[in-house]
Amino acid sequence: MIIKACTMDEIKPLVAEYLQGLSSPFDSFLEDHIVTSAFYRIQDGQEDIGYYALHNGELMTQFYIRRSSLKKAQALFLEALERHAVKNLFVPTCDELFVSLSIDQDFKINKQAYFFQDSGVEIPINMEGDEVFRPAVPQDLPVVQQVCGDFLNNYDQWLHDGGLFVYYKGKNLLGIGVMERSKLLDGLASIGMFTNEAYRKQGYGTALIVQMRNWCRTRGITAICGCWYYNEASKRTLERAGMVTMTRLLNIEVSLKAENETYRTEK
């Protein structure tokens, strides 16, 4: 076996196979960690049989082995962990192989996030006559930045990319919606929102997510989203807005035991 560094573009067929095998999608939080990872291809002779990805050298974000070589998966998984002294794994529960390999090792499992999908259920919202939801324009940026602070790193870039939306009641900004198209999953986009602190607990957060769902749907885009596992308020808001979850992101702590057999591959 040979393990060597590569780019994501060099293993596009493997990445496509991996994505096709997922039972549900993941949102931009995990995707951002994946696309900024370093990639390593696994070869048996001249044949690519799998790959894995590491974020910042110590967080494994993907591990994939082709079905024809799955009998080698456990050994190769341990080899990758030991070779790079991996500390943590980001494992979405929609990835059966990655989940199974992690469970095999009895590592400590921490719950990181919920991943949500559109339920398809219509959620009615009653907007008053002076309420407006629309894509943001440059003139909105001063009030958006004043109200939302450091919710986003670069409001200008979000505006440029077409992913920033505003929700007004008269001249008052109730909140903003955000939308980020997936770089890996065709036709999907992660949505989110921020509600003006002065207007919270009045249903505007739910209305923002419903508006974002509807905006995506009318343009042939499937909305997905996520939230931190322990943010119950966000979870309830997303569920009221018609989003549902059956997928979790696990943050698994790697602790290789000294008595484990060490697997080595040829370099």
UniProtKB/TrEMBL annotation:
N-acetyltransferase domain sequence ranges: 131-261
Taxonomic superkingdom: Bacteria
Classification via PROSITE patterns: GNAT
Name recorded for this polypeptide: N-acetyltransferase domain-containing protein
Lineage: Bacteria, Bacillati, Bacillota, Bacilli, Bacillales
